[in-house]
Design goal:
This protein has 409 residues and is α+β, with helices and mostly antiparallel strands. It has ten helices and 15 strands. Strands 1, 4, 7 and 8 form a four-stranded mixed sheet that branches. A four-stranded antiparallel sheet has the order 3-2-5-6, with no helix packed on it. The chain has a three-stranded antiparallel sheet with strand order 10-9-15. It is rod-shaped. 20% of the residues are buried.
């Protein structure tokens, strides 16, 4: 085979190998001298290019895994080393992001009054919104207060002092801060003084008697022994005698007594007294003596001894029937000083005693025990009639009736 034929064959083989293996290689056409082999001579055009191609392929295949593994090996070692190398940097970055631990601070200030004078002894309380325990202190003589070891954050101050209105103030304390709180001025409290005038039972009764002494029927007839206050205070002994004394010495009493004596003389009652001025004087004296003895014995002496009230207590409410029964019953019953109803021993016995005394100055024909009891019965009936008038009529005709008296139906 000629050299030209061999070259063409090798080119054909190279083309077939490229098509089968899809390997593209560059074959040099330059002759490269090769070493001699003991049995034969190797041509550069036949063996050396093939060996070069396979060596290049093997070298390239060995280089590919090395290149593929070489980035991983440094990254593995680099990551371990990077952990130690970058830890200080990462730690410093983390420490830069975390906030500093809170540091307690202090709060202090001064409490003064509207004139700027220090309020000594004011109680100052520091409270927080996080439900932590509050702190409390007392202002000194110079009005200054201070709180130490106060946790940072919002807080509220409450100031309490005697004679001043409670004052509150709020603020915010930052970490490690020393706050000089603005001066706190306390306002004076508005004192509401309530004056309650309370009378003792004796004083209250005295005031009520003064009102009763102004009560007059038709504006001039005394109506002292009627109380229009249902729960009037009981009278003591002095007040019972005072009421009896003023009743008997009232000018109208003298006038009414004179009128009665004139009627008796005109009708020639108690004929033993005779007629004329002397007879009128005896009749006048006897009538006035009846008023005085009956008023003092039945209205002062016995009521003081028996602890009974000689006054009539106006009812003014309920049905007419109940009021009429009440008025009639009060001719034989009365209210005790203890407020309970009881038999009117003062009035009944007082009438009998006064009637017995009248036997000393009435004419002989108008004396006797029977006449005394008869007059007493007439007196009880007259008292019942007078009570009916008090309950239904006289209240409307009386002046200076207390404003708190029951209204007339």
């Amino acid at each position: 085979m000629t050299l030209a034929q061999r070259g063409a064959r090798q080119q054909k083989l190279a083309g077939s190998q490229r098509e089968g293996c899809k390997i593209v290689s560059v074959i040099s056409t330059r002759y490269v001298p090769c070493r001699k082999s003991p049995g034969r001579i190797l041509r550069a055009s036949s063996l050396c290019p093939a060996i070069a191609i396979w060596l290049s392929l093997v070298a390239w295949l060995c280089a590919v895994p090395a290149q593929a593994q070489s980035p991983q090996a440094p990254s593995t070692g680099g990551s371990e080393l990077g952990q130690f190398a970058t830890s200080p940097h990462e730690g410093s970055s983390a420490s830069a992001q975390l906030p500093d631990p809170p540091v307690p601070g202090t709060v202090h200030g001064t409490v003064v009054d509207p004139n700027g004078t220090a309020v000594a002894g004011a109680r100052v309380k520091l409270a927080r919104q996080d439900q932590s325990p509050s702190q409390e202190t007392q202002a000194g003589d110079d009005g200054q207060y201070s709180f130490a070891n106060v946790a940072p954050g919002p807080f509220q101050l409450s100031i309490v002092a005697e004679g001043f209105a409670t004052r509150t103030a709020s603020g915010v304390l930052h970490s490690g801060e020393n706050i000089a709180f603005p001066q706190i001025t306390l306002a004076l409290t508005t004192e509401v003084t309530e004056v309650r005038v309370e009378f003792t039972p004796v004083e209250l009764a005295q005031e009520q008697i003064k009102d009763e002494e102004k009560q007059r029927v038709l504006g001039f007839i005394p109506n002292f022994y009627v109380s229009y206050i249902p729960n009037a205070a009981p009278l003591n002994t002095r007040q019972k005698f005072e009421l009896a004394w003023k009743s008997t010495l009232d000018p109208v009493t003298f006038g009414i007594t004179g009128a009665i004596a004139g009627i008796q003389q005109a009708n020639n009652q108690f004929s033993g007294y005779g007629q004329g001025a002397q007879g009128y004087a005896k009749r006048y004296g006897a009538s006035y003596a009846d008023v005085v003895t009956n008023t003092f014995i039945a209205g002062a002496i016995l009521p003081s001894l028996l602890k009974q009230d000689p006054r009539y207590f106006y009812k003014g409410s309920g049905s007419k029937r109940s009021r009429a029964f009440y008025a009639i019953a009060n001719s034989v019953i009365c209210k005790g000083d203890n407020g309970h109803w009881q038999a009117n021993y003062s009035g009944i016995i007082g009438g009998l005693v006064a009637g017995g005394i009248s036997n000393l100055y009435y004419p002989a024909n108008d004396r006797g025990a029977g006449l005394t009891f008869e007059n007493e019965a007439i007196g009880i009936a007259g008292t019942a009639a007078a009570n009916l008038l008090q309950e239904f009529v006289i209240r409307k005709l009386s002046s200076h009736v207390p404003s708190n008296a029951p209204a007339t139906p």
